[in-house]
TrEMBL record:
InterPro entries cross-referenced by the UniProt entry: Sortase (IPR005754), Sortase_D (IPR053525), Sortase_D_1 (IPR041999), Sortase_dom-sf (IPR023365)
Record's keyword annotation contains Nucleotidyltransferase: no
Active-site residues annotated for this sequence: H110, C167
Alphabetized CDD domains for the sequence: Sortase_D_1 (cd05828)
Protein name, UniProt field: Class D sortase
Length: 190
């Protein structure tokens, strides 16, 4: 009887590992497809007359690229933050603005896919956001950990601020109780 129970436990474990691996590789494939789309849309040679205010998009659209040089990451930006969008890349929180609009920009991503290394960033690290209408560079100024339900990180402000959000702790299994927040300000080119 013990042998049968052991076999059942091993088989169940293998099934769970197989499901997790399948979801991981499926998610990776979705991000790769969105990344290819993002690289096409940021080709500025085709869209020279666009601005942040004239760029049009809808929920679910691939809208740009987020590059994090210190992590050697290039990630697609998807409009919206539902699970479906976050499975494809970094989600742009739809009530916030876009780069170049001099307000808050909020990007969210899963801690186990696109933002796995977000906790490795240090003050001064850079982010490059490539949009069809231009490139924008930001510098990490600070980080904080907030409760998962704390919406105070979404602010109406009179200056541009890039905010990144992911679940925290990074190694937590299931719905994480907190959020890891990164704040970055535009780099002014002289």
């Amino acid at each position: 009887m013990k042998k049968i129970i052991s076999i059942i436990i091993i088989v169940a474990g293998l099934i769970f590992v197989g499901i997790a691996a399948s979801e991981y590789f499926s998610g990776k494939k979705q991000v790769e497809v969105a990344l290819a789309d993002a690289e096409k849309i940021v080709d500025k040679s085709k869209q020279k007359s666009l601005t942040a205010d004239t760029f049009s998009y809808e929920i679910g659209d691939v809208i740009g690229l987020l590059k994090i040089p210190s992590l050697d990451e290039t990630l697609p930006i998807i409009e919206g933050t539902d699970y479906e969008m976050l499975d494809r890349g970094v989600g742009h929180y739809e009530t916030t603005k876009l780069p170049g609009q001099k307000k808050q920009i909020l990007f969210s991503g899963h801690r186990n896919t696109v933002f796995t290394k977000l906790g490795d960033l240090k003050q001064g690290d850079r982010f490059v956001v490539e949009m069809p209408y231009g490139n924008y560079e930001y510098e990490l100024k600070s980080t904080e950990i907030v409760d998962a339900n704390d919406l105070s990180v979404i602010r109406d402000m009179d200056e541009e601020l890039l905010t990144l959000s992911t679940c925290y702790p990074f190694s937590f299994i299931g719905d994480a109780p907190d959020r890891y927040i990164v704040y970055a300000t535009p780099i002014v080119k002289s």
